[in-house]
Amino acid sequence: MSGWTLGAALRPASLARAAQAVSTPTRFHSLAERNGWALLSPGRGTRSACLLFLFAACAPGPESGLAHPDVEQLSFVPKGWAEPFVGLRCEASEDLLVDRFEVTRERWTSWSERSEAPLADLSAWAPLDEGQNLPAVGMTYAEAQALAQARGMRLPTVGEWMFIAGGSRAQSWPQGNPRSDSVANTVEMGLGHTAAVGTFPAGASTATRVEDLIGNVWEWVSPPLPAEVEPMAWLLQGPSPYPLWAMGGSYQVRAQELFSFDGVRRFNAWGLEPEHRADDLGLRCVAGAHDYLKHHAQEWSQAAWEGRLKAIGKAWGRRAVPLLSRLVAEEGSAPALAWLLAGARE
Fold first, then answer.
1. Dihedral of CA 214/220/225/230: which sign?
2. Per-residue confidence at 126, pLDDT binned at 50, 70, 90?
3. Which residue in 2, 141, 148, 316 has the fewest CB atoms around it within 10 Å?
């Protein structure tokens, strides 16, 4: 089953969404929501929207003033694994560079021009000037893949996404415990639409500093899907029939932990057909850190960017030192790699 999911604050929920809504032990916001519609409370939504508008207006956008936005918005995630359930590993088999934020509408438009495959026109959802730093939405799985490939990146696997979100300790929430409804754009926040990326820094993963892993928009991930785990947004009898997943929830559903057990092992995921499009479905990209850095470092080796590259290395921290040291030691390594290493050692 595939299709379009339209509407920012009011839309018919699928059976999967309805099952997720009634399974969550938090109060409903309206009678319409109880009947399978995501209708937000006007009073609470208005207050939340005003607060977020003020926050976004006062804080610099995550892409403002960037000489090279791609490298400055990538988080370093060292290889490792977590075990959310006994005997089930979620693993990053290599050091990764990960989009710190969900791909924005502005970046989708920019990279679309370099894609070998035609991509979704975001104007079908809203004019671009209504929010360049809002997450890009409305793309199919193939379009999400094509955008990642145009950037020299890819979509994360389910295991990588879970490791990025929960870290090696397999935290139930990216920001750690206890749960908080004020650190993510979910139904509890009452905003009723997507928020600019970077609006909820308190919800970032304490393990990786990656943001918006819960709420805002669902994020496409790549197979393989774990056979022994079901998506939380599928509570009907029997295994989910969908071949693909999106992870993390959105502004249209309640906050859910990264994994849970109700007799069945579940991840915070939504089962989808490849052609599905939705106004709360986006993406985040990853790349193997070694190959990506080696391929692109020469582009960043401008003297004027030395300070910026050191700042990036400092943000990545000492976990990046082993990889950066190996790259710098290679014959003909680009100056940008040495700048990154110097920052990481601070």
1. positive
2. low
3. 2
Q: What is the pLDDT of residues 260-307, one digit of tens each?
A: 999 999 999 999 999 999 999 999 999 999 999 999 999 999 999 999
pLDDT higher for 218 or 2?
Answer: 218
Q: What is the pLDDT of residues 195-215, one digit of tens each?
A: 999 999 999 999 999 999 999
Torsion of CA 214, 90, 270, 73, to 10 degrees: 40
Polymer length of the chain: 346
In contact, 215 and 66? CB cutoff 8 Å = no
Contact 345, 324 (CB under 8 A): no
CA 110 to chain centre: 19
Residue 139 contacts residue 281 (beta carbons within 8 Å)? yes
Calpha distance 128→169 (Å, rounded): 39
pTM of the model: 0.81
- The dihedral through the CA atoms of 188, 194, 200, 204 has a sign that is positive
Specify the pairing of strand 244-247 against strand 269-272. Answer: antiparallel
Residue 67 in tokens: 């000489």
Cβ-contact 241, 16 below 8 angstroms: no
Q: Please tell me the distance from the alpha carbon of residue 300 to that of residue 252, in angstroms, as a whole number.
A: 39
Q: Which CATH architecture has domain 4-288?
A: Alpha-Beta Complex (3.90)
Q: Where are the domains of the chain?
A: 4-288, 301-344
Q: How many CB atoms lie within 10 A of CB 260?
A: 15
SS3 149: helix
Cβ(170)–Cβ(159) under 8 Å? no
Q: Specify the pLDDT at position 4.
A: 37
Burial (CB < 10 A; 0-12, 13-18, 19+), residue 109, is middle
Q: What is the rounded average pLDDT for all residues in the chain? A: 82
Can you give the pLDDT at residue 181? 84
Q: Which of 81, 75, 137, 80 is nearest to 105 (CA)?
A: 137
CA distance 226 to 324: 32
